């Protein structure tokens, strides 16, 4: 059965627009529901997160591949369509709340990083097709910068959560760095215990002297306190294995956070100031949705970062 021509034409006109909005919707789902996966036992929530996680990369890649075929050399909308390409790179970088769905995903960090080359080639080809019109070149490059940073952050988080990455972090964590057990507040002590027991997550015995210190601390606790400590340690482990926490909670991570937020705001300002009388009104509306939603999601991610336990621990240990 042949598909009627009018439906084919309708899809040709709307395919990229629908896909890019779908990709954005998946990012919204992941940033909010990704946090619930750690504590929720609902099968429906886990199913939605799993489906969204599986679709996120496929939809973004498919939309990116279709951008060039949507462009018409005689249309002024080429420049605004090219502006959408870096948003798809940004979506491929994923939200801070979920980088992997399982530990096996972390072992694919190299393949994920290599994929950046192919995706950037397609995105820059789309940008090249929009030239010599350079009206939105600066905001496009700003979002490109943010997208590349977020993509590399995710790849690095995947690497640090792989067996190889965990082994490297354990080998760099000498016993002298774990000696401080006195005068620690509750959160710092819980994080110290997590750091000291991290080798156990990959079936490596912790340092013997640290093992005895852990034993002494735990024996002084009540059963309820031990369960609370275990809950905290598993929470830290989840953040490190399945989110961008290990990147975000570092000096470089804080700098990149400010840089990315600034770039998104600048891109939004430049787009607002750019005359848009010859652009398709629907395309302009979609672009505003992409920009405003990116600002809101970045703001939400910053709030989550600021009020996380790891941020409190970092501030308490700043000399």
Low-confidence stretches: 174-184
Let me know the number of strands: 0
In DSSP terms, counting alpha (H) and pi (I) runs of 4 or more, how many helices? 14
| Strand fraction | under 5%
Instruction: Report the principal-axis shape.
Output: elongated
The SSE string, one letter per element, is HHHHHHHHHHHHHH
Q: What is the rounded Rg?
A: 23 Å
Protein name: DUF4220 domain-containing protein
Organism: Dendrobium chrysotoxum
Keywords: Membrane, Transmembrane, Transmembrane helix
InterPro entries: DUF4220
What's the gist of this structure?
It comes from Dendrobium chrysotoxum. The protein is mostly helical.
Please render the helix and strand layout as text.
Blueprint: H1 5-36, H2 43-70, H3 78-93, H4 103-106, H5 109-130, H6 137-160, H7 163-171, H8 186-197, H9 208-219, H10 223-242, H11 245-248, H12 251-273, H13 281-306, H14 309-316
Helix pairs in contact: 1-2, 1-13, 2-3, 2-5, 3-5, 3-6, 3-13, 5-6, 6-12, 8-10, 12-13
Transmembrane segments: 16-36, 48-67, 79-101, 108-128, 134-152, 254-273, 285-307
Keywords: Membrane, Transmembrane, Transmembrane helix
Domain DUF4220: 50-315
Report what the structure shows:
The chain has helices at residues 5-36, 43-70, 78-93, 103-106, 109-130, 137-160, 163-171, 186-197, 208-219, 223-242, 245-248, 251-273, 281-306, 309-316. By secondary structure, the chain is mostly helical. The termini are far apart. Helix 2 (43-70) packs antiparallel against helix 3, helix 3 packs parallel to helix 6 and helix 6 (137-160) packs antiparallel against helix 12. It contains 14 helices and no strands. The protein has one domain. Helices cover 75% and strands 0% of the residues. The model is unreliable at 174-184 (pLDDT under 50). This is DUF4220 domain-containing protein. Keywords: Membrane, Transmembrane, Transmembrane helix. Residues 50-315 form the DUF4220 domain. The chain crosses the membrane at residues 16-36, 48-67, 79-101, 108-128, 134-152, 254-273, 285-307.
């Amino acid at each position: 059965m042949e598909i009627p021509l009018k439906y084919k034409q309708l899809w040709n006109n709307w395919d990229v627009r629908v896909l890019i909005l779908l990709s954005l919707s998946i990012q919204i789902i992941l940033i909010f529901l990704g946090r619930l996966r750690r504590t929720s036992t609902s099968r429906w929530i886990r199913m939605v997160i799993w489906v969204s996680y599986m679709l996120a990369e496929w939809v973004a890649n498919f939309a990116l591949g279709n951008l060039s075929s949507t462009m018409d050399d005689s249309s002024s909308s080429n420049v605004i369509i090219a502006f959408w390409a870096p948003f798809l790179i940004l979506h491929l970088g994923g939200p801070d709340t979920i980088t992997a769905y399982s530990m096996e995903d972390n072992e694919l960090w190299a393949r994920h990083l290599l994929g950046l080359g192919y995706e950037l080639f397609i995105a820059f080809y789309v940008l090249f097709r929009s030239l010599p019109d350079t009206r939105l070149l600066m905001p496009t490059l700003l979002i490109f910068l943010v997208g590349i940073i977020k993509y590399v952050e995710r790849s690095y988080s995947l690497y640090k959560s792989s067996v190889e990455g965990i082994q490297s972090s354990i080998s760099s964590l000498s016993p002298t760095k774990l000696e401080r057990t006195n005068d620690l507040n509750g959160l710092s002590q819980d994080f110290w215990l997590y750091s000291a027991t991290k080798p156990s997550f990959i079936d490596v015995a912790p340092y013997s002297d640290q093992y005895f210190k852990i034993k002494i601390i735990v024996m002084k606790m009540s059963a309820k306190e031990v369960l609370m400590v275990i809950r905290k340690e598993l929470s830290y482990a989840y953040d490190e294995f399945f989110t961008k926490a290990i990147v975000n909670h570092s000096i470089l991570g804080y700098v990149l956070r400010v840089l990315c937020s600034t770039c998104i705001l600048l891109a939004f300002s430049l787009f607002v100031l750019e005359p848009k009388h010859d652009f398709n009104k629907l395309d302009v509306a979609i672009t505003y949705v992409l920009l405003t939603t990116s600002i809101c999601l970045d703001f939400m991610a910053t709030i989550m970062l600021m009020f996380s336990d790891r941020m409190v621990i970092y501030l308490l240990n700043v000399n």
